[in-house]
Amino acid sequence: GGTLFLDEIGDLPLAAQTRLLRLLEEGTYRPVGAEGMRQARIRVVAATWRDLSMDVEEGRFRRDLYHRLAVVELRLSPLRDRPEDIEALFFHFLDEAASKAGRAAPRLDATVLAYLRAWPWPGNVRELRNAASYLGAMATSARVGLDDLPAQLLRERPDLPPTAVSPR
User: Fold this and answer.
1) Which of 84, 112, 146, 150 could be stapled to 108 by a disulfide with Cβ–Cβ 3.0 to 4.6 Å?
2) pLDDT per residue over 71-129, tens digit each?
3) Is residue 141's pLDDT more than 70?
4) How far is residue 113 from each of residues 79, 92, 158, 168, measured CA to CA in Å?
5) Dihedral, 15, 17, 23, 26 alpha carbons, nearest 10
6) What is the mean pLDDT of residues 3-16?
7) Nearest-CA neighbor of 53 among 40, 44, 62?
8) Gap between the Cα atoms of 22 and 37, Å rounded
9) Contacting residues for 154 by C-beta, under 8 A, at least 6 apart
């Protein structure tokens, strides 16, 4: 009676794809250790970074499962191609992390925002969330600069454009 989110569905082994297809087609499953089948009424949402249609052609993903899942397909470009989204997402995650830590979200120097926009974000939104969560939980002052960012973001510093941004 809910939603099942399957992250990285493209990495699911073929044997597990068969079982998932049975669940989707028949609405039945057998819990580990149970003797009988159970009925499930679920909505399935799946995500992947892979090109599943290519995986189908190359035999790595079941065609019938692909067509069962691909009712509504949303394609999102990577975060590095959407720099206009970085600031809003970062502040959302920063506020969320600071709230969980029971503190106010720190303010960012203008160079931090420019740096965040210039970073290539190979880990996409998860990497952005981790960086914001780190600052929300670990910042020791009310205003943070570049050196306060997580170490993994500071290994290869991108070139920063001149900025006149006045961050929150």
Assistant:
1) 112
2) 999 888 899 999 999 999 999 999 999 999 999 999 999 999 999 999 999 989 999 99
3) yes
4) 15, 14, 12, 10
5) -90
6) 94
7) 62
8) 11
9) 146, 147
* Identity of the residue numbered 65: L
Asked if residues 61 and 102 have their Cβ atoms less than 8 Å apart, the reply is no
Backbone angles phi, psi at 36, to 5 degrees: -115, 170
Tell me which residue has tokens 């939980």. 137
**Residue range 34-59, pLDDT digits in tens:** 999 999 888 999 999 899 999 999 99
- The rounded distance, in Å, linking the Cα atoms of 59 and 91 is 42
Distance between CA atoms of residues 103 and 117, nearest Å: 25
CB 115 within 8 A of CB 151: no
